[in-house]
Amino acid sequence: MINISKKERKLFILCFLALHIAGISWGQIRKTDDRGLGNKGGNNSGGLVNRAEYRKKQDSIAAHAIKPLVKLWRLEADGAYAVRHYRDTADMNRQILYPNYKKNIANTFLGNVGSANQSAIFALRNPVQEFLFLQPYEYYLSRPETHDFIDTRTPYTELNYSTGGNNNRDENILNVFLTRNINKDWNVGVKYNLISSKGQYQSQKHKLYDFTLFSSYETGRYKLYGFLSHNRIKLEENGGLVDDALVERDTTVNSENMQVRLNNAGTSLHNQNFYLSHQYNIGEVRERVLFGDTTKVYPIKIVHTLQFDESSRKYFDSENSTDFYETFLYAY
């Protein structure tokens, strides 16, 4: 089972209620006759509605119903450009569960979901991050540069839960995505992802989660985008196997019984992001058609972007002293 703290549960419930209960969504507004279909409606006697009038009324409601439509885009060049993206709502690649394989077809990682990962394709490796310790976990993080902003006519929800393995070595993935338009110009949403796995060897347990609030506002020549996220990673460190050759020499030994170098060590990583970008377009608007989509382009735009990023790492070992670790110099 996935362990969610009481604080996380309250925060998620609060955001869910704010998005899906409070207020009336613009996407749900339908144009209907003020008389309705009650006892006062229609040319009826005794307050009854005849079948022909009822069908006519239902056809009128269906004609004015708003069809679902979801548009996504990602900001580039410090918010100056919005690049169109697409979401796989049909879930064609449902068999791909690991987040790292959803973003890359070849990866080198430690075996269990949520563990340190590196692309096996050198050309697809991302640049080194400013905070080096986040580099192996970049595929699991919620960051403004990889976030898709949304414009939707109707409330949009995605819920995914995947689990596998026995009770001692199970892996769990939970994804929650909620968004809606307050009106035709303003969108708000919340995203929550949780990964937990116990690993195949001793002291290999991982837990990663991110919580994100986002919003966009586009009207006329003015556009504004906001993003706030918190990423947290908690993992046990085992330092690898004491005898790597044991894997090939004795195939009767279970992985959980193999001796590892560290037994009471771990790492805790925190990352917080705040991103705010807004722009004002100047000049005569022009239309550009690209891949069947018509986009409005202005010759001049004024863009202001504010970004705050805070990261921290804590490593602990309650069993070994500092003399246990060798000095290792790393340069990049």
Chart the SSEs and their pairings.
Blueprint: H1 6-20, H2 51-64, E1 70-76, E2 81-85, H3 99-103, E3 107-109, E4 117-119, E5 149-152, E6 156-164, E7 171-181, E8 186-197, E9 206-219, E10 222-237, H4 246-249, E11 265-282, E12 286-290, E13 293-297, E14 300-317
Antiparallel strand pairs: 1-2, 1-5, 3-4, 6-7, 7-8, 8-9, 9-10, 10-11, 11-14, 12-13
What can you see in these coordinates?
With 332 residues, the chain is mainly beta. It has one domain. It is 11% helix and 39% strand. The chain contains four helices and 14 strands. It has a seven-stranded antiparallel β-sheet with strand order 6-7-8-9-10-11-14, covered by helices on one side. Strands 2-1-5 form a three-stranded antiparallel β-sheet, with no helix packed on it. The protein has a two-stranded antiparallel ribbon with strand order 3-4. The radius of gyration is 26 Å and the shape is globular. The chain starts with 5 loop residues before the first helix and ends in a 15-residue tail after the last strand.
Oligomer: single chain
Integer tally of domains: 1
- Uncertain residue ranges: 22-45
User: Helical stretch count?
Assistant: 4
Mean pLDDT: 81
Please report which band the strand proportion falls in: under 5%, 5-15%, 15-25%, 25-35%, 35-45% or over 45%: 35-45%
Strand order of the largest sheet: 6-7-8-9-10-11-14
* Largest sheet features: 7 strands, antiparallel
Order of helices and strands: HHEEHEEEEEEEEHEEEE
Helix content: 10-25%
Instruction: Tally the beta strands.
Output: 14
Structural class: mainly beta
The separation of the N and C termini measures 40 Å
| Radius of gyration, whole Å | 26 Å
The outline comes out as: globular
